[in-house]
Write a structure and sequence with these properties.
Blueprint lengths: L1 H4 L4 H10 L3 H9 L3 H16 L6 H10 L6 H14 L2 H12 L5 E4 L6 E5 L1 H30 L9 E6 L2 E5 L5 H19 L23 E2 L5 E2 L3 H9 L1
Antiparallel strand pairs: 1-2, 3-4, 5-6
Length: about 240
């Protein structure tokens, strides 16, 4: 929480510990394209998600390989030790989960929403307190987005439609002339409704995008007046070729 609230990249924070350098040095080297720090950040992301989810050595290695990070068994103990030293509060978290799941399948009550999840084992319980929290926050936002799309003529989102939800991002269709106002309304809903479930670690939406197609290459584009305009894959390809 302190790292996130301090405006720092939590994956880069762990990467700095792995590289045995300061966060400031890791950040500077990462921005310069340093491959060692980049690889460490990729590994840190796997540690933050996989270890927080309670994975043991075999499942962790399998999970890492799925996202292109190679780990061998002899590395696991050292990596986990570094990660736990970085976030020592996780030791208490795992003890809590162990107590809750000691007798087998557990019933977990989610914070804030009070939603119950039954038949939960150890790794599911480890995951559900943050994955489930993220789900409560985003689905709450999704309901309000839908309400404004269909039922609120005064909203910039009125007439827009949700066409997909990808992990933590909503994909909407709308008329191009209203896209700029719609994207900022969407950003506000995401942040406002997430804050209900994340009062101590306020969520932020980084770089909302407008595009004529969905792509991992998409980037923010603005006209001379500062209005966000659609990114277009055809223009990107044309610029690269030229």
């Amino acid at each position: 929480a302190n790292v996130i609230n301090g405006g720092k990249d939590v994956h880069l924070w762990v990467a700095a510990q792995l590289c045995k350098i300061s966060f400031e040095e890791a950040e500077a080297r990462y921005l310069q394209g340093d491959l060692k720090v980049k690889d460490a950040r990729d590994l840190a992301k796997v540690l933050n998600f996989g270890l927080a989810g309670g994975l043991g050595v075999d499942n962790f290695i399998e999970y890492a390989s799925m996202v292109g990070v190679k780990i061998v068994p002899r590395q696991f103990k050292s990596l986990k030790k570094t990660w736990l030293n970085t976030f020592p509060e996780m030791k208490d978290y795992f003890k809590l989960i162990s107590r809750k799941t000691r007798t087998g399948d557990a019933v977990i009550e989610h914070v804030f929403s009070k939603r119950l999840r039954g038949g939960v084992n150890y790794t599911e319980a480890c995951n559900t307190y943050f994955q489930g929290l993220g789900s409560d926050a985003t689905k709450s936002a999704g309901f309000e987005i839908s309400r404004q799309c269909y039922c609120d003529p005064s909203s910039p989102l009125f007439g827009c439609r949700i066409v997909n939800f990808i992990h933590d991002q909503f994909l909407l269709e709308c008329k191009e002339e209203k896209a700029d106002k719609a994207i900022w309304a969407l950003k506000k809903i995401m942040e406002d409704y997430a804050s209900i479930f994340l009062p101590d670690v306020p969520a932020t939406v980084s770089e909302p995008m407008i595009g004529r197609c969905w792509s991992k290459d998409i980037k923010q584009c603005f006209d001379e007046s500062g209005k966000m305009i659609p990114w277009d894959k055809k223009f990107e390809v044309k610029n690269k070729n030229s």
